Amino acid sequence: MKDARLAVVGCGAVGRSVLELAGEYGHRVVAVADSSSAAVDADGLDAEAVLERKSARGIVGDADPDAVFDAPYDVLVEVSPTTLGDAEPGFSHVKRALEADRHVVLANKGPVAERYDDLRELEAASAGSVRFEATVGGAIPALSTIDDLDPGHVTAVRGILNGTANFVLSRMAAEGLDYEHVLAEAQDLGVAEADPSFDVEGTDAALKCVILANVLHGGGYTLADADVDGIEDIPGSALDLASEDGRTVRLVGEVSGGEVRVGPRLVPQNGTLAVSGTMNIVQIETEHAGPLAISGHGAGGPETASAVLADVGRLPRL
Amino acid sequence: MKDARLAVVGCGAVGRSVLELAGEYGHRVVAVADSSSAAVDADGLDAEAVLERKSARGIVGDADPDAVFDAPYDVLVEVSPTTLGDAEPGFSHVKRALEADRHVVLANKGPVAERYDDLRELEAASAGSVRFEATVGGAIPALSTIDDLDPGHVTAVRGILNGTANFVLSRMAAEGLDYEHVLAEAQDLGVAEADPSFDVEGTDAALKCVILANVLHGGGYTLADADVDGIEDIPGSALDLASEDGRTVRLVGEVSGGEVRVGPRLVPQNGTLAVSGTMNIVQIETEHAGPLAISGHGAGGPETASAVLADVGRLPRL
Q1: How far apart are CA B124 and CA B133, in angstroms?
Q2: The whole model's pTM is what?
Q3: Mean pLDDT for chain A?
Q4: 0.85 surpassed by complex ipTM
Q5: Which of residues 139 through 158 in chain A touch B, CB cutoff 8 A?
Q6: Residue B226's beta-bridge partner residues?
Q7: What is the pLDDT of residue B130?
Q8: SS3 label, residue B197
Q9: Which domains does chain A have, with CATH numbers?
Q10: Which of B133, B267, B266, B274 lies closest to B208 in space, CA to CA?
């Protein structure tokens, strides 16, 4: 869809980047909401002004957050924080847009991982479509590549899907430092959150794998179906031992044989899966074309926003 | 397009695989031609029978090759050998199909590298569309990924685009053997042709880069615009020297700053571009999402055929 009018829900790193970049992709943001406020302009918001206000006053505008849904938009962009279980309030935002026959593009993983079947049901009853490239692998076009190859011809998907965990493990291996030390370094660099559990416990990677499983199998998976182990208990000595054998340890997520597994795994030091730093990689096993591996930035404001805006471009005219 | 009727011109490794796999992708081959014969069946050919005949008698059928164009087809699949300059007879096959308002999917690089502007002109005047994913990187969805990201947001593309040259260089590096020795080994394995010049001189990689340049810039490039150096003069000592510095040598093709260059280049031994064996990799520099790298099988019957059949699936209904 060209020249789409976007209603953006969420004004964190990704939401801010969507505001900044929408114009370059030929789209217009007509409304934006954060958790406590909204700004609406049917002719298109002044992104710079909104972002300055957010920066200075902590709010995007003077309207109620709900006002976003009354704006004349084509696509609801759901980029508010991922929540688990009932995936609220994100799920209700998506429901509202689809019931109004509008399109939805998500970077919010909650509705797609935890309520996929409900989401597809709402979509089927709507004139609008749902897209969520940004939920898996950030800038890596994992889902559209799988879609393009036809999920039926994809036999397995595995990958390094969390940049924080990968940064920690590759630094531990490269510098011979222990987990606590590298985690603290990552937090200083802004690569890990003050509460890093979502990343280091493997939950973030697991949500992405659950989404992949839903896409490959047409639904039926939630986070509860994933077998998840994180990286908090890996001693530096394990990495040294692995290294003597030409291997290293990475947090790998895999969807194959109907199962979803995330956990630390030994991989060849110079192999495909041994990406460094915060990079992500998605490896797609295909029926006739062998393995395809796509690597790139799995997170970041502009990186994730570019995936969101690419999805807007893929939507059909309403 | 679903359930497409395919007219396949060319019955080498790729053509044979298209015949074998078309059914799995939901399509039907109604005609196939090699250089001296054709077989036609509006209800769909018996692929096994045709392939047996080709194997036993060297021909696909009893009809004249031209008969392929009279079959009731939706998509012409041009998988005959790549030719340079006027790109004939492939170009005329494509012209005929487009003038009959049919779609065209190519694995044949000639028309796309050498006569891109003519091709797009014929396409503009036709109800049919032209697709050519299989011409660059075999199974790697390079062109559809670029298309999806929007060529306007892609600042450069580089890659390892020839499996033969890459195999030779990675074997020279891994085993410390010289060029002649490894080339002979590659020929024994069927990885290099009896006349390997197309691959080792860099022509094949250059054609693929010219195609990428045409896609990124909307035309204007032919093989003559590429600056091409092959791998025939690289001594084993160059690889040893590189290795002491943590690097190796690969035949890299690049499209950037309006230029097209193919030549041997020093790359980090464990870096993204140091793929091994016959694997290919395409690295796409994007404006906001950083670099994306996609690796996979760049050649092979089933691999290339899967790219052809994926293209058929992307075509609009006629």
Answers
A1: 19
A2: 0.91
A3: 95
A4: yes
A5: 139-141, 144-145, 148-150, 153
A6: B260
A7: 98
A8: helix
A9: 5-138+301-314 (3.40.50.720), 143-297 (3.30.360.10)
A10: B133
